[in-house]
Amino acid sequence: MRSRQRVTLESVAAHAKVSRQTVSNAINAPDVVKPETLARVLDSIAELGYQPSRAARQLRTRRSQILGYALGPVTYSVYGTIGDRFVHGLAQAAQERGYRIMLFAASNDDEEIVQFDELLSGADLDGFVLTNTHHDDPRTTWLTERDVPFVTFGRPWDAEHGTHPWVDVDGAAGTAAATRHLHELGHTRIAYLGWPHGSGVGDDRRSGWSSTMAELGLNADERWQETTDNATEHAEVAAARLLRRVGPSAVVCVSDTVGLGVMQAAESQGRRVAVTGFDDSAVSYVAGMTTLAQPIAEAARRALALVLRQIGVEPGGTAARNELLPPELIVRRTSIRPDPLSGTVGS
Amino acid sequence: MRSRQRVTLESVAAHAKVSRQTVSNAINAPDVVKPETLARVLDSIAELGYQPSRAARQLRTRRSQILGYALGPVTYSVYGTIGDRFVHGLAQAAQERGYRIMLFAASNDDEEIVQFDELLSGADLDGFVLTNTHHDDPRTTWLTERDVPFVTFGRPWDAEHGTHPWVDVDGAAGTAAATRHLHELGHTRIAYLGWPHGSGVGDDRRSGWSSTMAELGLNADERWQETTDNATEHAEVAAARLLRRVGPSAVVCVSDTVGLGVMQAAESQGRRVAVTGFDDSAVSYVAGMTTLAQPIAEAARRALALVLRQIGVEPGGTAARNELLPPELIVRRTSIRPDPLSGTVGS
Q1: Is it the case that residue B177 has pLDDT exceeding 80?
Q2: Do residues A236 and A224 lie in contact, with contact meaning Cβ atoms separated by under 8 Å?
Q3: What is the pLDDT of residues B105-156, one digit of tens each?
Q4: What is the CB neighbour count within 10 angstroms for residue A15?
Q5: How many domains is chain B partitioned into structurally?
Q6: CA distance B41 to B18
Q7: Residue B29 has pLDDT above 70, yes or no
Q8: A contact test, residue of B32, B169, B286, B325 with most A CBs within 10 A
Q9: Crossing angle of helices A35-48/A9-16, nearest 10°?
Q10: What is the DSSP-derived secondary structure letter of residue B346?
């Protein structure tokens, strides 16, 4: 077992026969070092292959090339792993630009803000990448007030929080694409099962269905909608009501787990119903459910570019910019055509 | 918008009416500072609430309090998210001990080693946490040869790589518990569907079933086993063969996705078959499949303690230690009793 031989400030100093402080000055403040001494130190640095450490470089440049990213606790959740997939893309995109991602733990907004404060005091981060934006998000206000560079994956859902850079996936475009896809298959009785009103993401996804139904001249009034939380068993109950009430031939759903509830309710009632979900989760893959895939790697790459622009190391100025990316429709077995015998138009 | 007021080395120096170097000496080499000057600088530090930055502390202590962790690229996978759940636990455990996790990107062993080298040269990490250990793993050899502190989540699968600290989940104990559970329900015709021979994790999980079957005096010869890769559609084909060949009343499976293949094959053939999976994934939850949950948060906590011991900041010495944690049996709807009419013993 051989030890790693690292070239240090001390070994450069010994080689150049100067003090440690002189080597440090040669790197960080060369104008205070005598020219012949500077030349000798630089020769030693080159000869030994010395690389100033990140910490030394950071003290010099005042940039750590590190961005902070919060992870919640280990949870058991079937609700997709968009955040986990995003952080893979973020680590990759950052590395390509010489940046690293430092993780910290936070299980809610307040804990995340406490960590922002601690990390900014002690860890010299250059900025933050946030996920899971929501109405009345105190995190973006906190960072904006302190002029800390950051970007959010997820748009601001209140107008007064809308001044920072963000990247998001266009949920409305996704459900609009799903609705048009079902219409092209021959469906006209297309219902929607979504989350309760008031969530930014949920309301956005519902709007894609309702606006497309209006464009197509199809019925999308309250009777054609139900709401549920994201638990499949609750979605199944809500779907059962919706199926009995209007007898849709297809249901556009706010998520894959909600879509699974519709599939189960349809099976219980012996109905053939086309279903689309959202997120391209393992659940949708296993269930053979048509769904919408978020372009996660691309979102991460663009988020990184936006925060680097805030920091000032990416051209294009520090003005906040936004990117809204369309999801991709993934067609699977639940994209069935309507039964020709029951295919009446409207309700 | 107000700017964040940070107390710096410079502002302490100005307040104490000394040079920046003197403040630095007061923090890092107090014995070279005159006592009355030292007292004045320490008073200014206290009054202004100055916190030496992480970079400054790091130059002083030679410890960054940062651990490296590799993430692969964004992939679409239904094969569970154990690694993603582990990193949540790791971030939490590290934070509780004043450590942070720095992510880097690597899509294979060679890329991970390139990053080890780069991070050790430039980023001053204290150590690494590795996942996905496998036969002939070059990463652990590379780190061991360089005396770099690290821990693996996943045991070394070759004897010659067995000298480093690791934490793992006891796969054999898990499948043994599943086999005993099925036996307690009345099953005696218990088959096994696993991965091809040669993978450490797969062979370990198979051994728990075969040794328990032997203890119970039940048949576990080659006819009662099939192998498949982890794709549900391939598992379904292998399961169909296994069900026709020996007509088991229960199948212990190496993973949830393989278990789903058994459920689908049983349904196609109109058979009632109890099924157990492994990993407590979203797929198992949705399918109502009995499975084995890995204690991820606990594994992360113990992995952190072991790497801190290697670094020398945790009591207990730097000798490598290992922790093998049992998974927990999660009983769901696929834990059916055998059909009394076809419940013959053995084959």
Answers
A1: yes
A2: no
A3: 999 999 999 999 988 877 678 999 999 888 889 999 999 988 899 999 999 8
A4: 18
A5: 3
A6: 8
A7: no
A8: B286
A9: 120
A10: -
Q: Does residue A190 lie within any of the structural domains?
A: yes
Residue B154 maps to a domain: yes
Euclidean distance between CA atoms B129 and B68, whole angstroms: 6
ipTM: 0.78
Looking at the DSSP bridge assignments, the partners of residue A71 are: A105
Per the structure, the complete domain to which residue B218 belongs is given by 171-293+330-342
Is A4 within the bounds of a domain? no
Note the pLDDT of residue A41. Answer: 86
Q: Tell whether B129 lies on the interface with A, counting CB pairs under 8 A.
A: no
Contacts of B228 (CB under 8 A, 6+ apart): B193, B194, B195, B196, B234, B235, B237, B238, B239, B258, B261
Q: What pLDDT, on the 0 to 100 scale, is given for residue A73?
A: 79
Distance (Å, whole) CA A47 – CA A314 = 33
Stretch 75-94 of chain B: residues touching chain A, C-beta under 8 Å = 75-78, 81, 84-92, 94
Residue B127 · residue B150 · CB < 8 Å:
yes
Query: What gap in Å lies between CA A216 and CA B123, rounded to an integer?
Result: 57
Query: Which pLDDT value is given to residue B150?
Result: 95
Residues B60-100 pLDDT 10s: 566 788 999 998 877 655 444 788 889 999 999 999 999 99
pLDDT at A78 over 80: no
- For residue B343, pLDDT over 50 is answered with no
My answer on whether A41 and A156 are in the same domain is no
Q: A200 and A110, same structural domain? A: no
Task: State whether A257 and A336 are in the same domain.
Answer: yes
pLDDT at res. B287: 87
Residue B117 · residue B85 · CB < 8 Å: no
CATH number for the domain including A274? 3.40.50.2300
The reported pLDDT for the residue numbered B3 is: 37
> Which residues 41-60 of B have a C-beta within 8 angstroms of A?
51, 53-59
* B338 and B205 share one domain: yes
Do A153 and A88 have their domain in common? yes
Instruction: State residue A60's pLDDT score.
Output: 54
One-letter identity of residue A254: V
Q: How many CB pairs under 8 A join A and B?
A: 174
Predicted confidence band at B346 (pLDDT cuts at 50, 70, 90)? very low
What pLDDT score does A347 carry?
40
Q: Is residue B285 domain-shared with residue B311, that is, in the same domain? A: no
Window 103-122 of A: residues touching B by CB (8 A cutoff) are: 103-105, 115, 120-122
Q: Assess whether B257 and B299 both reside in one domain.
A: no
Structure confidence at residue B158 as a pLDDT band (50, 70, 90): confident
Dihedrals φ, ψ of B248, to 5°? -70, 155
Asked whether residue B347 is domain-assigned, the answer is no
pLDDT average, residue stretch A121-148: 88
